[in-house]
Each structure stands twice: as C-alpha cells, then as structure tokens.
Automatic annotation (TrEMBL):
InterPro entries: Cro/C1-type_HTH, Lambda_DNA-bd_dom_sf. Coiled coil: none annotated. Residues 97-133 form the HTH cro/C1-type domain. This is Transcriptional regulator. It comes from the Bacteria. It comes from Hassallia byssoidea VB512170. GO terms for molecular function: DNA binding.
Length: 137
C-alpha cells in the first residue's frame, strides 16, 4: 500500500531542515519566517521545491496574521479608496461608471453618495459583492 505522497528531493529536505516550518506563535517567529520567504524569493528562478516550500511558509504566515492581525472590514467609500490604491487606479479610471471625474471625487470626498447603479457597476468591475459598497449608517 502506498501513501500517495512523493518522496521529497534532497533539496526540499535541505529547505525544511535549514528552516523547519512550524506554526508561528509570536512576532519574532513571524519576522524570521518572512525573512526566510524573502531570501528564497530574492534568489530568483524558483524551483518547484522552492514554490512548494514557500506555499507552506506562506500558509503559516497567513494563519498567524488572521489570528493576530485581522484585516479591518472596509465598506462603502473606504473600500472604494482601498481598491483604487490596490489596483493602481486613479479616480478618472472610473469615469465610465460615474460619468465624470468630478462625480467620482465628490463620492470619494463624502460630498455625494454612491447610487445603486454605481454600486452594481463597481461591484462588477472589481468582481466583488455589491453589498460591500453599501454604507451602513
């Protein structure tokens, strides 16, 4: 009977013995894990073993950050601002949705509210649920 797991290469064994992946329990371990990730990424030309190992380390970082550094839930205009920044977009890039740059700027500056039509269009554009753009009062 086989386990279905492939035998790890000597390089992969070297990776996990040099820096054994373990659950991250504090900030020092988080920084050490992030430094290890960066050192592998900096070498370039990643092998499949590098990619597999990075996936394991990345999962450990993600798990720690989810528990200890939860992301704030953004909604409405705050979310729109974050999405613009994250996507390297300018307000003028949304003219096709809001009809003019001044409309977009008014929305971003709190002088105007998103319309239902704009909410639907923004949700489709950013591929997220329209409910995230609805402001709760």
């Amino acid at each position: 009977m086989t386990s279905g797991l492939k035998t790890p290469s000597s390089y992969y064994i070297e990776l996990i013995t040099t820096f054994a992946p373990r659950p991250i329990t504090n900030e020092a371990e988080l920084i050490a894990t992030q430094n290890r990730i960066n050192s592998i990424l900096d070498k370039g030309n990643l092998t499949q073993d590098d990619k597999d190992y990075l996936k394991v380390l990345g999962t450990l970082v993600y798990d720690y950050e989810e528990k200890h550094e939860p992301m704030p839930i953004l909604k409405g205009v705050a979310l729109l601002k974050a999405l613009l920044e994250e996507s390297n977009l300018q307000p003028k890039d949304l003219i096709f949705i809001c009809k003019s740059e001044s409309n977009i700027l008014d929305i971003l500056n709190g002088k105007a509210k998103l319309t239902l039509h704009q909410i639907k269009e923004l949700a489709a554009f950013f591929q997220i649920s329209p409910t995230y753009f609805v402001e709760e009062n």
